[in-house]
Amino acid sequence: MLLELETFTTETALEAAAELRKVLAARTHRRKVMGQEVMVPGQLGEALQLPRIINRLQSKQQKQRDLGREDFQELWPTLSLQTRERVLEAIGWYDPKELDWDDKRSNRRPLVDPDS
Predict the structure, then answer these.
(1) Is residue 14 within 8 Å of residue 58, measured between CB atoms?
(2) In sequence order, which residues have a C-beta less than 8 Å from that of residue 49 and are 6 or more positions away?
(3) Rounded CA separation 43/19 (Å)
(4) Per-residue pLDDT tens digits for 87-105
């Protein structure tokens, strides 16, 4: 279920980057604030410069969108397999080769019975 780098378009990169931001923000950690323990949302997305990548992918200038896609392509392989799978599942990405024969998304067609 790995997304090949060659298949990233600006649109798919934007969709995956936005979902990655949600996945990373959903991670929380405990922090003591004024002596009390509180849950704080994850800030890894900011550390990975996801807002900048997303802004570039949404730019009206093609050059900026291309830079955003390249940045995301460099970031993608550094993510854990579990994180990548969560993002791909959330955006509805699938590999047709991994689908069951009866799955409607499958590209394979059943053989036509010549006797019918």
Answers:
(1) yes
(2) 71
(3) 14
(4) 988 888 766 666 666 666 5
